[in-house]
Automatic annotation (TrEMBL):
GO terms of molecular function: RNA binding; rRNA pseudouridine synthase activity
UniProt superkingdom: Bacteria
Ranges in a coiled coil: none
Stated name of the protein: Pseudouridine synthase
Transmembrane segments annotated in the record for this chain: none
Domain annotation RNA-binding S4: ranges: 8-66
Amino acid sequence: MTQETRGERIAKWLARSGVASRRDAERMIEENRIRLNGQPVTHPATFVTDGDIVQVDGEPVSAPERTRLWRYHKPDGLVTTHKDPEGRPTVFASLPEGMPRVISVGRLDLNSEGLLLLTNDGELARRLELPSNGWLRRYRVRVFGVVDEERLANLAQGSVFDGVRYGPIHAALDSRKGDNAWLTVSLKEGKNREIRKVMAGMNLHVSRLIRTSYGPFQLGTLLRRELEEVSPRVLRDQLPKATEKAPPAQRAPAKQAD
């Protein structure tokens, strides 16, 4: 059987549809949340072809369309998840009507703000999160406490706080007023709440954290809650592999996902 007649693995198809990363899609299969043509999907080695109907939690999923990427200025007070068990407002519920199904490239926690990349392609999201890209994530950070500039510079050699080893962090003092200071912080690989934990290890309390760039993509002049799509030309220039066309058998007419 040829690739064209066999179709595409369902986890990859779901990832390209913006449902989740391939890994998360496989987890959803294990949780019996996926149906293909009305039948439960029990194995990731299940293939989707043109005309098949795929459902997640009982809702139909539109076939993948061309890869798209958006810059979003996340305000604080929103969680980066589709459904929050605590009922807190989410990034995705705040998006304008008519948006296709999208997922985030990485996350910003509840109290963090700034640039959040959104895409309709789960495979792309996973790829952009990998440290092997070497992409810098840059932040403006306001801290309360006494800043030791020498200790700040030493973070570039890696650090250990509370038994956890952190990779290189480049941090510099921008301005200081009383016990408050603004820092510029850059890193290529971030653990959960890494900047807050590292600053706490230096007796600095983070009162504001704003991501200003993610790789080549900048927050720029985006206003809070503002959303702007990255043009296809810029996407081709920055991520050439992401815009390569899928084989004909893997393409289907685009539909509104949500």
